[in-house]
Amino acid sequence: MSDEEYMQLALKEAQKAFDADEVPVGAIVVMNGKVIAKAHNQVELLNDSTAHAEIMALTTAYNFLGSKYLPEATLYVTVEPCLMCSGALYWSKIGRIVFGAYDEKNGYRRSTGTNNPFHPKTELQGGVLEEACSRLMKDFFKAKR
Fold first, then answer.
1. Can you tell me the distance from the alpha carbon of 77 to that of 99, in angstroms, rounded to the nearest whole number?
2. Which are the catalytic amino acids?
3. DSSP 8-state assignment for residue 127
């Protein structure tokens, strides 16, 4: 599958968050061509400010593999990771991160500037299905106003 096809799966997770009145961020973890984890934001449901899609997906992947590192895996997430999630991704040693929409307000780049907060071996790609990912976020916050 292509990055766009995997991001479509992450968007399905984001839609679940949207439908549950959570900030619509979805994430999947792929390893060797197989989805090993799916998650979406559950901050409101769990009353836990750390229950971001990326954190939930990492935990699921760790449990699936019985490992605390993911150097052979790729995370697909619909929105640029925040600084907290970037720290968790650093420690996961994940091989690749692919995100959809850029987040000027809460994304990792706001706090780190041009410094890369991820593991030195982690590959990073942004802007995959950016319009669709961004639209879901905009629709969510527009409905809140």
1. 5
2. 54
3. -
C-beta separation of 133 from 100 below 8 A: yes
The sign of the dihedral angle between the CA atoms of 112, 100, 84, 24 is: positive
DSSP H helices in the chain? 3-19, 43-46, 53-65, 83-92, 108-112, 130-144
- Beta strands 34-40 and 26-31, pairing class: antiparallel
Element (H, E) at 39: strand 34-40
- For residue 93, which of 116, 66, 120, 55 has the smallest C-alpha distance? 120
Q: Which amino acid makes up residue 116?
A: N
Single out the residue of 69, 50, 53, 56 nearest to residue 18, CA to CA. 53
Quick: pLDDT tens for 96-136.
999 999 988 887 777 776 678 888 899 999 999 999 999 99
Cα separation, 24 vs 5, in Å, equals 18
**Span 41-81, pLDDT tens digits:** 999 999 999 999 999 999 999 999 999 999 999 999 999 99
Tell how strand 73-79 and strand 26-31 pair up: antiparallel
Its pTM surpasses 0.85: yes
